[in-house]
Amino acid sequence: MAEADPSDARASIPLEQWLDRLGEATGAPGGGSASAVMLALAAGLLRMVAEYTPGRDEAKASGRRLLVLRTRALHASDADSEASVALGAALALPTEDPARESRLLRAAVDGARSSVEVGEVGIALVAELDVLGRVGNHHLDADLAVAREALRAGLGGALVNLRANLDLVAAHSAGSGEAESTSEGELRRAERRITHARGSLAELP
């Protein structure tokens, strides 16, 4: 994987430019970053539903939270790009390099944590989808459904990337110590939370 400047992969650049970057062989942005952008799209659509629901305090409060979550999703996209570059650099090290295993393990753990942050944003968005499914303007049910699908995709992408990083952690953590073992346990618990949240989408109104 080629080296890249993570700042060039920011989700805050124009969309066309960001998509150009996504299609390049840099990994920054990559699939994890794209998953976070899907969640930002879901947050934007949900906020639109909230704004089209006047006179409901729950919708107004949800709209405020969604603005924060959209920003958090974009920050998670940026962070995942940085983690992707670090992982690519570790994978590119020669196999005989004595630092390769430790760098790869650290990069895999950091990449997994980045995926967890994307997933945690998605979990918070599931709660907002529940609120707006109950109190939102039903003339925007189609937009709510699109938000649900974007949310499902974003959570699914977070899980795919988290599991890929966990596989790397498991493969390179033998004899690495209690700290890494604890990190892996925390990450697997996060995986279960994200999996549960994605599954709960089918149960929401």
Task: Please supply descriptive tags for the structure shown above.
single chain, 205 residues, mainly alpha, Four Helix Bundle (Hemerythrin (Met), subunit A), 76% helix, elongated
Overview of this protein structure:
Helix content is 76%, strand content 0%. It has 205 residues and is mainly alpha-helical. Helix 2 runs parallel beside helix 4 (100-135). The chain is elongated and about 65 Å long. The termini are far apart. Mean pLDDT is 89; it is low at 1-11.
Q: Which strand-content bin applies to the residues?
A: under 5%
Average residue-wise pLDDT: 89
Gyration radius, rounded: 18 Å
In CATH, the topology is named Four Helix Bundle (Hemerythrin (Met), subunit A)
Q: How far apart lie the N and C ends?
A: 43 Å
Structural class: mainly alpha
Helical region count? 6
Q: Give the helix level as a range of percent.
A: over 70%
Largest sheet: none
- CATH class division: Mainly Alpha
Query: What is the subunit organization of this protein?
Result: single chain
